[in-house]
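Final report, closing paragraph on structural work. Over the funding period we assembled a curated collection of sequence-structure pairs, and we close with a single example.
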Amino acid sequence: MADVQKLRLGVNIDHVATVRNARGGAYPDPLRAARIAQEAGADGITAHLREDRRHISDADIEALMDVLTVPLNFEMAATDEMQKIALHHKPRAVCIVPEKREERTTEGGLEVAREENRLAHFIAPLREAGSRVSIFIAAEQRQIEAAHRIGAEVIELHTGAYCDAHAEGRTDEAEAELGRLRDMATFAHGLGLEVHAGHGLSYETVVPVAAFPEVSELNIGHFLVGEAIFLGLAPAIHEMRRLMDAARAPR
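Its predicted structure, as stored:
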């Protein structure tokens, strides 16, 4: 079993930009949200620059790179345009995610096993530029093995299926998905990969995932931005941090 370590929290600010873009103005400012998240104890800031620029913009990435004192986790599709942007900014971390224009948000994990050669060549320059490369994948052994073969240093396990089953009251399915996440976190850690997790996590679903000793980072965004409407962003983050720390505390 992995040694117990402090679990990092990456706060995704994409949907602050979603609200801003709904009116076409400058408010609310994702950069301000990132600053508040830093002060509230976030260990990193996640931002997904989508091809259609539906939320985070190129200017947001510029500003974040200039002011952040915690690492930026730059989520992006495996396209030439996004690779060029990442190589220009050289963020501390790059997470490669699947992307379809018609989707509301990222659906499922990246299909690595069928695109090993292309993805291996795609991530090589990013690693050479000094960015830690993560691959966002489903909790499937063949995808983890493929991510390891192409030279990724990190995998991020997609927790959406577990969270959806929990939200819809499908208890047996939620438990099965949680077991799959646990097993694949252990498997990936055994290969020497750093293991992250994220997508759909809330106060109700975070504790079992945070308790996996092999997981070193959770990336959470939509729930925190939504909860900030009622609590404020800093208190929402503080509560998530509290739950994560409690889950990781020695028993």
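The longest helix spans residues 171-190. The CA atoms of residues 136 and 156 lie 5 Å apart. We thank the funder for supporting this effort.
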